[in-house]
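Lecture 7, part 2: worked example. A protein chain together with cytidine-5'-monophosphate.
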Amino acid sequence: MIRELSNPSVCMRDPQKVQEILESMVKAGSNTVQVISDFDMTLTRFAYNGKRCPTCHNILDNSDLISSECKEKLKELLNTYYPIEIDSSRSIEEKLPLMVEWWTKAHELLVQQEIRKDLLAGVVRTSDAMLREGYEVFFNRLRDHSIPLLIFSAGIGDILEEVIRQAEVFHSNVKVFSNYMDFDESGVLKAFKGELIHIYNKREGALLNTGHFQELRTRPNVLLLGDSLGDLTMADGVQDMENILKIGFLNDKVEERKPSYLDSYDIVLVKDETLEVPNAVLRYLT
Ligand code: C5P
Ligand code: MG
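Predicted complex, written out as C-alpha cells:
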C-alpha cells in the first residue's frame, strides 16, 4: 500500500496490524491526526559521513561557551552514561536513576558556565546539528494540512527551537515540550525551568500537560516517532486515543536492540537517516 514500507531499512513484526492502523486512520481523516515526535536522533540525524551528529546537549557541550575543563567533565559523563542508555541488558527501572544522575550532573555543569542567551543562536549556527533528510517535506506537509506536531524532547528546548528556527521549519503548528533554560535579568543561565525531562519520564511530562492534549481531543489518531524505548510513553496524555502508529528509529547497537524495538514499535527503521518512511505515511494519511 505504501511503497516505502518495502525499503530495506524497514522492519515490522506485524505488517498486517500496520496496514489496519493506517486504513483506520485514513478513514478517520487527517483532521483527526496529531503527530508526537522525539527530537534528538529522531528528527535529527544520528550520523553523517560516518561521524556522529550532535544532540541538543552535545551542541552546547562542544561549543566555545564551555571551558575546556568543563568539556572534559561533560565528555566523561557522556562516556559513562550513554553506554548505559543504550544497554539492552539492563531494564528501564535499573537505568532510570542513572539517567536522572546524568541529566542532573550535566545541567549542574552547564549552569556553572554562565552561558549567555544571546550567544545560543551562533552556537547552533556553527554546530554540526543536522535534521534528517526530508525534514522540509515533513514539517511543511504537517503545516499545509494543519496537523499539530508536538516535539517532546529530553534535550534542551532553547537549542532545539533554534535548530528548527534556523532550518525555517518552526511553523505555528509546532509545539515543544522540553527542558528550557532559565536566565537571569542580564541573560545569563542560572538554572533549568520546571520538572526535569529525561528519557524515561516522558509519561509524567505528558501527564503534566493535560491542557495541550485537551485542546487536541478531536485528534485521537496519533503518529508517534521516537528512537528510544522511553519515547513510547510520549502519547500517554492523549485523550480517548483511537489509533496509534509508532515508528522507531534504531540507530545504534542494532542487533542487540532489534527484538525489543520490534516488540514495541510498529515500524522499526534500521540505520535509516531519512524521514522517507514517516513522509510516505503522512502522504498516505493526507
Ligand atoms: O530529544 P531526546 O529526548 O531524544 O533527547 C535525549 C537525548 O539526549 C538522549 O538520547 C541522550 O543520549 C542525549 N543526552 C546528551 N547529553 C546529556 C543528556 C542527554 O547528549 N547530558
Ligand atoms: Mg531521541
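The pocket of magnesium ion (ligand 2) is lined by residues 38, 40-42, 227-228 (CB under 6 Å). The chain has a mean pLDDT of 97. Keep this in mind for problem set question 3.
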